[in-house]
Structures are given as structure tokens and as C-alpha cells.
């Protein structure tokens, strides 16, 4: 049996629906809404404090790969945020999807690998897939579903979240395998965030109960993090004769319109294997034309190609990352968006 996430907030208050009734997947197919090939995901807008009021529902923030599971009458597909088919990368999740006992469905959620305390671990997920560009399949990953976009011939994207969640909870009630429910927690948002941070979690997600499913970063969903983590472009590195892989630190940039803006460097978080891979890969991307205007005798500039996930504690007055730590490289198929400098939260 796959593990369940242990650090649920205020576990005794988790919302539950009535147990779902078994459905006969062989029942005749009725001519309802056509099933979309893909639905562009709804993205959470970064905020520093949780919203207040009864209109907002809260969940844990997972640290993994955003995926959509498409269950069809004769197959199940797992689609990345960028629209790539990764069914073969998550065989256990695909098998669980085929056994859900439903004719058609689209589940929105996150694939994660849990640590021994039930917390999602992005590095462990990457390792289970063989690292960036790896070809391995992950048998450890669990898919936590947090939305239901299509179900038994009905397109639910125009329906408010509260209805979609009710159907999803009925559908996945009691599931403990490779597909599980991302459970809703309720209470004061500030208290939930504080609890999440004390437990060592990523943070929380707030979602407006009355909104339909709208693609893009609309503000219907908000993310409030304990420790900030965003994607930045690697534009070079500082050479070192003593550091592993010859890399003392990575030079990072964010996006501002069509330009790159330097946001500082990161010299912690990567182990020897990471550093050796980065050194070999970045040396193939060397360029004499830096993407950002920097000078230094030990600096090596590279073509802006590799996107790194960086954990940090905030911003300095001059626009650099504070206490940055490297978490890993993002996959091209993950469609990770490089952080837009104009998106720095004001509160």
C-alpha cells in the first residue's frame, strides 16, 4: 500500500463527502460534452499572506510535477503542464488511473514523492525519474488530485470549485494508492500557514470556492509559501578550483519582458553529482555574449537554456535573492515558467 501524506493540517477537521457509489464502467455512453484533448492548467498567484473570509478553501501546497490524468474508456494518459505525454514515466499512477472505475475523467493534481514524514520532496521526485533528462520511470510517485475537470461525459470547468470538489471527494473517498485526494483543510488561513511552516511543509494554496476553472494565473487560486521557491534561468557560473565540478556558484536571472535581469548567485544545495552534471552540461553552452551585464575574471557565461528551481528567503534591497539554495533543474516538458521580476509579491 502506498503511503499517505501524514502532515495534514487540523486533521480532525478535514472536509469529507458521502462515500461514492460504485459505477458500472460498461454502462452505455451518452452524448454529453466532448472530452478535451488538453486543458491549460489554472495557476496559483503568489501572495505573502493568506486571504480571509468564508469564500476561500485551503489545501496543502505540494512540491512536485503538475500533471493532468485523462481517463478514457480504453486507456489512461498522464499529461504534463507543458502538454507532453508522460504516461510511461509514472506507471503506478497510470495503472491506478485505469482502475478508478469510471468511463471518462480528467483529474488535475501534482505528482510527488513523500519523505519519511509524509512531506513532498522535489529532489526525491527528480531522483526517482533519473534526474533532468533522465529516462527512468518513477514507481514511488503519488498523484494528489485537487480538482476534477471532466467526469462521465460532463465538462466541469464552468462549474464552481465547491461543486467540483464535492464530486472529487466522492470519487476518491478513502483512496490510499498511487492516486489520492489532496484533502481540503479549513480554519483561519494565517493559522494554517503557521502550522504548515512549523511542520516543514511548502506552504498552503487558497482557492475561491465560487469560481469556475479558468486557465492561467487569474487570482482565483493563490499560493502562500513558507519558504519561497521559484524557477530562474542559469546564465553562467563562477569557476572554482576547489569546489566540486569546478562550480563555485551559479549565476541566475529572472525575466522582465523580453529581457533577462540578474538576481544573484547560488552556491549551496547541489551535491557532487549535481555539480558534475552542471559543469559538464554548462560547458557545452558557453558563450562570449552574456545574457546579463556582469564582469568578473572567474565568470563563465552560458546560453540561457537551463532552468533551475531555487529556494530562497526573500529579496535584498538591490534585487538579489537572499539565502538562495539550489533544488534541482526543471524539465523542459514541465513547462516551468522563469520567474517574472514584475511578479514579486507586494503583500
TrEMBL record:
User: Sorted alphabetically, which Gene3D superfamilies does this protein's record hold?
Assistant: 3.30.1490.70, DNA ligase/mRNA capping enzyme (3.30.470.30), Nucleic acid-binding proteins (2.40.50.140)
Q: Where is the ATP-dependent DNA ligase family profile domain?
A: 134-257
Q: Which reaction does it catalyse?
A: ATP + (deoxyribonucleotide)n-3'-hydroxyl + 5'-phospho-(deoxyribonucleotide)m = (deoxyribonucleotide)n+m + AMP + diphosphate
Extract the ranges annotated as region (Disordered): 1-35
Q: Name one GO molecular function term.
A: ligase activity
Question: Which residues does UniProt assign to the signal peptide?
Answer: none
What keywords sit in the KW lines? Answer: Ligase
Q: Which Pfam families match?
A: DNA_ligase_A_C, DNA_ligase_A_M
Coiled coil (residue ranges): none
Q: What is its EC number?
A: 6.5.1.1
* SUPFAM superfamilies found in the cross-reference section: DNA ligase/mRNA capping enzyme, catalytic domain (SSF56091), Nucleic acid-binding proteins (SSF50249)
| CDD domains on file | Adenylation_DNA_ligase_LigD_LigC, OBF_DNA_ligase_LigD
PANTHER family found in the cross-reference section = DNA LIGASE 1 (PTHR45674:SF4), DNA LIGASE 1/3 FAMILY MEMBER (PTHR45674)
Q: Name the protein family.
A: Belongs to the ATP-dependent DNA ligase family.
Q: What is this protein called?
A: DNA ligase (ATP)
Q: What organism is listed for this UniProt entry? A: Pseudorhizobium endolithicum
